[in-house]
Design a protein that fits this description.
The protein has 213 residues and is an alpha+beta fold. The strands form two sheets. The chain has a six-stranded antiparallel β-barrel. It is globular.
């Protein structure tokens, strides 16, 4: 579990293809590897990866083909910057929101509108995710916890403050660039629970025979 507060702007050292469309990814991140051990979780652009090895400020992780297909990690190359965050520790402050590191889909930057103190960035998102995105709600973009400023039918906008622009990859994203999206997991659980209750209610009505004694 993560919070969406990026700890470090790291760099892809290399991506080595392995069997079954998977890959071994090497990432440079002196801060996040300072206490990293085999089996630890580190989010890379919002994707939860498991550390295989860590040494000299670089860690490696196996990335399955499914992850490469469902996220923007498959497009990364050596030298690309990436947002890094270690798994949250119990008892620490929750500066962002609850983030699983399980990417729901890939979005796309469609516009950037600079202002004096911040920048409004608009993203297109997959239609299947639109119902989970609400104004003033939370969303994770490339591992960054952000508040939704505006919502459209298939797009949404966020405001990026100078710190986010400077210390994460979002400051350099251009129009057309892909981004990893993770919607608020609470919304998905609520949908599932309400759906089950509605199904049970419908079943009860269907199963009722009614009549006069």
């Amino acid at each position: 579990m993560f919070t969406g507060i990026v700890e470090e702007l790291g760099e892809i050292v290399g991506v080595t293809p392995t069997a079954d469309d998977s890959a071994l990814v090497a990432v440079r991140g002196p801060l996040v590897t300072s206490d990293a051990r085999h089996g630890d979780s580190i989010a890379v652009n919002g994707v939860c990866l498991t550390v295989v090895e860590a040494a000299d400020g670089v860690f490696t992780a196996d990335v399955m083909g499914e992850t490469l297909r469902r996220s923007a990690l498959g497009a990364l190359r050596a030298g690309d910057p990436v947002n890094l965050e270690r798994a949250a520790a119990l008892g620490s402050r929750l500066g962002g929101h609850l983030v699983q590191g399980h990417v729901d889909g890939v979005g796309e930057v469609i516009s950037r509108e600079p202002a004096e103190q911040w920048e409004t960035v608009r993203f297109r998102l997959p239609a299947a995710l639109a119902r989970y995105v609400v104004e003033k709600g939370s969303i994770t973009i490339d591992g960054v916890s952000l508040t939704v400023a505006e919502v459209g039918a298939d797009e949404f906008a966020v405001g990026l403050i100078p710190t986010t622009l400077k210390l994460t990859t979002l400051g350099a994203k251009g129009v057309g660039d892909p981004v990893n999206l993770e919607v608020d997991v609470v919304a998905k659980y609520v949908e599932r629970l309400l759906g089950a209750r509605l199904t049970d209610a419908d079943a009860g009505l269907t199963g009722s025979t009614g009549g006069v004694a």
